[in-house]
Protein backbone atom coordinates (compact mmCIF):
# COMPACT_ATOMS: atom_id res chain seq x y z
CA UNK A 1 0.00 0.00 0.00
CA UNK A 2 1.22 3.51 -0.82
CA UNK A 3 0.70 6.15 1.88
CA UNK A 4 1.21 9.87 1.35
CA UNK A 5 1.97 12.15 4.27
CA UNK A 6 0.97 15.61 3.09
CA UNK A 7 3.99 17.84 2.65
CA UNK A 8 6.49 14.97 3.07
CA UNK A 9 6.15 12.36 0.37
CA UNK A 10 5.12 8.75 0.01
CA UNK A 11 6.00 5.48 1.70
CA UNK A 12 5.27 1.88 0.80
CA UNK A 13 3.64 0.13 3.75
CA UNK A 14 2.81 -3.55 4.14
CA UNK A 15 -0.89 -4.29 4.67
CA UNK A 16 0.10 -6.31 7.75
CA UNK A 17 0.67 -3.01 9.62
CA UNK A 18 -2.89 -1.76 9.13
CA UNK A 19 -4.25 -3.23 12.37
CA UNK A 20 -1.69 -1.35 14.46
CA UNK A 21 -2.25 1.87 12.55
CA UNK A 22 -6.03 1.50 12.79
CA UNK A 23 -5.78 1.49 16.61
CA UNK A 24 -4.00 4.84 16.50
CA UNK A 25 -6.50 6.08 13.91
CA UNK A 26 -9.41 5.11 16.19
CA UNK A 27 -7.79 7.03 19.06
CA UNK A 28 -7.28 10.04 16.80
CA UNK A 29 -10.93 9.97 15.67
CA UNK A 30 -12.13 9.89 19.30
CA UNK A 31 -9.85 12.78 20.24
CA UNK A 32 -11.00 14.88 17.30
CA UNK A 33 -14.65 14.19 18.18
CA UNK A 34 -14.01 15.25 21.81
CA UNK A 35 -11.96 18.27 20.78
CA UNK A 36 -9.03 16.97 22.84
CA UNK A 37 -6.22 19.13 21.42
CA UNK A 38 -3.30 17.68 23.40
CA UNK A 39 -4.47 14.09 22.84
CA UNK A 40 -5.02 14.80 19.14
CA UNK A 41 -1.50 16.20 18.74
CA UNK A 42 0.09 13.27 20.62
CA UNK A 43 -1.82 10.63 18.63
CA UNK A 44 -1.32 12.28 15.25
CA UNK A 45 2.42 12.43 15.91
CA UNK A 46 2.41 8.77 17.02
CA UNK A 47 0.51 7.71 13.88
CA UNK A 48 2.84 9.57 11.53
CA UNK A 49 5.92 8.30 13.38
CA UNK A 50 4.76 4.68 13.03
CA UNK A 51 4.05 5.14 9.32
CA UNK A 52 7.56 6.55 8.86
CA UNK A 53 9.12 3.73 10.91
CA UNK A 54 7.20 0.90 9.27
CA UNK A 55 7.13 2.26 5.73
CA UNK A 56 9.78 2.32 3.04
CA UNK A 57 10.16 5.84 1.60
CA UNK A 58 9.63 6.10 -2.14
CA UNK A 59 12.10 8.19 -4.17
CA UNK A 60 11.17 11.85 -4.46
CA UNK A 61 10.83 11.53 -8.24
CA UNK A 62 8.36 8.64 -7.88
CA UNK A 63 4.68 9.53 -8.05
CA UNK A 64 2.54 6.51 -7.29
CA UNK A 65 -1.22 6.66 -6.69
CA UNK A 66 -1.70 6.96 -2.92
CA UNK A 67 -4.15 4.60 -1.27
CA UNK A 68 -4.07 6.60 1.97
CA UNK A 69 -3.40 10.29 2.48
CA UNK A 70 -2.46 11.40 5.97
CA UNK A 71 -2.30 14.99 7.18
CA UNK A 72 0.97 16.81 7.80
CA UNK A 73 2.39 16.74 11.31
CA UNK A 74 1.53 20.40 11.82
CA UNK A 75 -2.12 20.00 10.73
CA UNK A 76 -4.65 21.49 13.12
CA UNK A 77 -7.46 19.61 14.79
CA UNK A 78 -9.94 21.44 12.54
CA UNK A 79 -8.02 20.55 9.37
CA UNK A 80 -7.95 16.88 10.36
CA UNK A 81 -11.64 16.96 11.28
CA UNK A 82 -12.37 17.97 7.67
CA UNK A 83 -10.34 14.99 6.36
CA UNK A 84 -11.97 12.39 8.59
CA UNK A 85 -14.64 9.98 7.46
CA UNK A 86 -16.76 7.80 9.75
CA UNK A 87 -13.88 5.29 9.69
CA UNK A 88 -11.21 7.86 10.51
CA UNK A 89 -8.26 8.52 8.23
CA UNK A 90 -7.60 4.82 7.63
CA UNK A 91 -10.60 2.82 6.37
CA UNK A 92 -11.35 -0.44 8.11
Automatic annotation (TrEMBL):
It comes from the Bacteria. It holds the Pfam family PspAA. Residues 1-92 form the PspA-associated domain. This is PspA-associated domain-containing protein. The lineage of its organism: Bacteria, Bacillati, Actinomycetota, Actinomycetes, Kitasatosporales.
Amino acid sequence: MIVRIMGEGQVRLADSHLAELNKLDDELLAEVEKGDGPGFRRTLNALLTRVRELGEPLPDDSLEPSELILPAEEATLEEVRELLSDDGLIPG
